[in-house]
Design a protein that fits this description.
This protein is α/β, with parallel strands linked by helices and about 210 residues long. It contains six helices and nine strands; from the N terminus they run H-H-E-H-E-E-E-H-E-E-E-H-H-E-E. Strand 1, helix 3 and strand 2 form a beta-alpha-beta unit. Helix 2 crosses helix 3.
């Protein structure tokens, strides 16, 4: 069964807190304050935190259940002007788009925002060995992923269909280097890293090449 959006909107998990912290931290690295667009606000926890920290936040979603400020699909942000936002946050959203729409969505994000935070889900199950010796700043981590690499990302596999995912990072055609290649058409990649505290997430901090023109 597909995800029940209405039920999911009422849930709150540890991942919401972790993801919100990383969004705030990554925003600090590129724009301390300013106008932010959150695509896919979900339960709205990050909206509350970022507003509390002084950001001017607008939300955008295809599903009215999440009561966004603006309704629509991320591959069409035509209601926004060029460089309208200091940053666009797109956390675990792009995988809900079929592959043919992905480049269009990336181009639209780069058009409306000077910077972007794009977080993507990693396919499969995830293991981790982590060593934190108590020395400030030292945190060693080894993460591995287990999934069927030969599985075709067509949006029809039951476990991905249940999450309404057409693809996930690591699958054929969607490895980290494949996604970076797509992103580099429109962005300079400032940072790309695996979230040690939420293993299913790979995070990208990007600067729009379109804003530089």
């Amino acid at each position: 069964m597909p995800v029940d959006s209405k039920a999911w909107a009422k849930e709150l998990h540890m991942s919401n807190f972790i993801n919100t912290y990383y969004q705030y931290r990554d925003l600090q690295s590129c724009c301390n304050g300013g106008k932010i667009l959150i695509v896919g606000p979900g339960q709205g926890f990050e909206v509350l935190v970022l507003k509390w920290r002084g950001y001017e936040v607008s939300t955008f979603d295809i599903d009215e259940i999440f009561t966004p400020d603006h309704l629509g699909s991320i591959h069409d942000l035509s209601l926004f002007n060029d460089n309208e936002f200091d940053a666009v946050i797109v956390s675990h959203v792009l995988e809900h788009l079929a592959a043919p729409y992905l480049d269009t969505a990336l181009k639209e994000i780069a058009r409306v925002g000077r910077y972007a935070l794009i977080y993507l889900p990693v396919a499969g199950r995830h293991g981790q060995l982590r060593f934190i010796p108590g020395i400030r700043g030292l945190d060693l981590s080894l993460i591995w992923d287990m999934f069927n690499y030969f599985e075709k990302p067509d949006g029809k596999t039951p476990r991905y269909c249940q999450k309404q995912h057409f693809w996930e990072l690591g699958m054929r055609g969607f490895r980290v280097k494949d996604i970076k290649k797509r992103m580099e058409k429109y962005f300079t990649i400032l940072s790309a890293y695996r979230n040690r505290d939420w293993r299913p997430s790979y995070n990208f901090v990007l600067k729009s090449k379109m804003a530089e023109k």
